[in-house]
Amino acid sequence: MPGQASVEAPGLSLSIRLPTLVVWLSSGLRGPGVAPGRGEAQEGFARLEVALPSRLDNQVDRASEEPLSGTSDRVVIGMDPHKRSATIEVMAGDETVVGGGRFDTGRDGYSAMTKYAKQWPNRVWAIEGCQGIGRHIANRLLADGEQVVDVPPKLSARARVFATGQGRKTDATDAHSIALVGTRMAGLRPVVNDEQLALLRILVDRRRSLGEDHTRMISQLHQLLLELIPGGAKKSLSAAQAKALLATVRPRDAVGKARRRVAAELISDLERVYQRSKEADKELKELVASTGTTLMDLHGIGPSGAARLLVEVGDITRFPNRAHFASWNGTAPIDASSGDQVRHRLSRAGNRQINRVLHIMATVQLRNPTEGRAYFDRKKASGKTSMEAMRALKRRLSDIVYRCMINDAAAGTAAGPGGQRGTATGSSVTGSHPPAGSSEKSLPGPAETQDRTLLPAVS
Hints:
The chain is of the alpha+beta class. It has helices at residues 21-26, 40-50, 107-117, 135-143, 153-161, 171-184, 195-228, 239-247, 254-290, 303-313, 322-329, 352-366, 371-381, 386-411, and strands spanning 4-9, 12-17, 60-61, 66-67, 75-81, 85-92, 97-104, 123-128, 148-151, 189-190, 334-335, 344-345.
């Protein structure tokens, strides 16, 4: 009859309305003799963005708007989140697309989205970037008692590469890739609603912002002092030292007076940043100590570094061994061997914030007579360059941090943020140098428990 079309697929014969035909074709069901068209998926998903979500006639009773019995129970709702909008796709366990749509993230849009999702009681939300742009909507779903897993952007990008069509990147195709990852991948990290961990994240992000403000102001102040004082100021400059230098300058021209005034304003801003940073460090130190972690006992890790580790790592037990942890934080070298030539190169991947924490830890140890300094010197004596020795030291410190967090997780029964469980007298963290493994690069093969050896003593 007019306005309808018959679609046949193996084991399926349906009569559907023409407006939903594009959605069916984008799901991979085509009539006999119909060749896959390029860009078909994008065209079908574009229909989802401008209209109400299409529902399949054989899965939804349009009178009651409820899924019929006999359909798959569990569905994954893949979401491509943005600041003001969220595009979702509902995918069954057999990767059949059963719904989707585009909603704004305001109160009305969020309410409409959650109401729409309630027709699938057994659901899990797969959201891309729950530690970034997707955090705001993931937190709202968690507060409503929803189950949420984090989909790393790299995984969804890989799924999109193998999609049909011309590889156009739209919100709808992103939601489809995220839903595929949520359906196919096991072991995705669940998002938990931990108030203490959320508080740590807010405070450590604020502390990092204060550090960035300090660096920017110091750079501007050095530039102004160089134009006011021949030779400028020394590299390590405090606000008090800058104020003393500025007091010796009495420019007479209008430009010089403007430079001096702006420099004085920067010094005042620096003093406020110093005070706020000091207060932020004190608050972070108290909060990190309340978690029971022993990370601050390690030489080179302060309150900010410990808080960043707790926030970014989460549950340390999700890493089977130290090699997986080193690969995740980017300290494990990448095998670049070819034929008889065996070599490794620096990894630019991994969590760069944790990599920065380990770099600061290594730098602090190099400035003091520590076992890290002795290890670095032995590497230099064996023929490695300074950069190669530094990379080896960071890899070793990654093992130390991993062992410390594992010991913390096993030390008590009351779990804190990020899987930390408090301390006990039997912890193997003794002083600033706990045991660590001897491996300097990620190990091939399956993950398994390995014995740890002490960091080699000074030779």
